[in-house]
Amino acid sequence: MSVRKRVALAATGLLLGGGLLAGPLASASVAAPASSIAAQSYIDGSGSKVTDDWGDEGQLSTTSHSHSNATGLWQVILWADGAKESNGTKFDYSDIDCKFGPNTKAATKSWQAGEGLTKDGIVGTKTFGRADDYLDNQGNGVVTYHGWDHDVWLKRVGGKYEVRIHAAKGYKVAYYNTITAC
Predict the structure, then answer these.
(1) How far apart are alpha carbons 38 and 145 in whole angstroms?
(2) pTM of the model
(3) What is the pLDDT of residues 27-43, one digit of tens each?
């Protein structure tokens, strides 16, 4: 993906968030609070605007939902952006295992540093919220994450995000407490 497209998406997200753009996108529904998302047990999204889908999500870390499809979705984001592991290499596709271990924590810190966020290695509302700035609604339930190194296609069906990690397993709902995608 070009830097220009990623910067344009981020700028549009800032303008929408600040209420500076008018029209149908500016009147999109407000996302539910994080406490209700955690009760749903999956990464949630609805409405035509996708750049506000993840800012209210639950937490992912080595101690919170550390073995889940939601963690797998986050690892796909790390891969798409080429986040750096603790040894300085890029987070590889083979690193996607739906387990939030030391490698994922180090890559998350790298991603957070690149986005100007606190480097705590925890994917909370600010980290998820920054990531959703790079989502693009393609229509028909398809959402693209525009990463620095790769674009990733996700699905949003019935308000639930789905991720495909292994082609043979197909798309799986990004549940916080289930591993079926890896």
Answers:
(1) 22
(2) 0.81
(3) 333 344 444 445 569 99
